Amino acid sequence: MRRIFGHFLVAMAVVAASLLAGMAGYEHFEDLAWRDAFINSAMLLGGMGPVNSPQSDGGKIFAGLFALYAGLVFLIVLAIVLTPVIHRVLHTFHWDEAD
Asked: What is the pTM of this model?
């Protein structure tokens, strides 16, 4: 159980770092307030898409790259969380070589 909790904490750290990076990018490229940058980043990381459409060229490029990154983060976080669970399930199917 401790291993699952540890992996969950790592996954949440990845999500938090990604959320902060997205917020910083939206604040820098689109001059959005932090709360608007938060909702855009959270919606992209959640798979829903941005709330505010980017207006600047830099903002459009950032939003596209962040959307691609968000898709990868989803898969990475899923793998981090499920790895100890799958590992435990595979241990239940382990047979001794003597059997």
From this structure: 0.84
User: 75: Cβ–Cβ under 8 A, 6 or more apart, which residues?
Assistant: none
Whether residue 96 lies inside any domain: the answer is: no
By residue range, what is the domain housing residue 83?
2-91
| Residues 15-59 pLDDT 10s | 999 999 999 999 999 999 999 999 999 999 998 988 988 999 999
pLDDT band at 89 (very low <50, low <70, confident <90, very high): confident
DSSP per-residue string spanning 47-86: TS--SSPP-SHHHHHHHHHHHHHHHHHHHHHHHHHHHHHH
Terminal-to-terminal C-alpha distance of the chain: 29
> How many domains would you assign to the chain?
1
| 95: helix, strand or coil | coil
Classify residue 64: in a domain, yes or no: yes
Q: Is 30 part of a structural domain of the chain?
A: yes
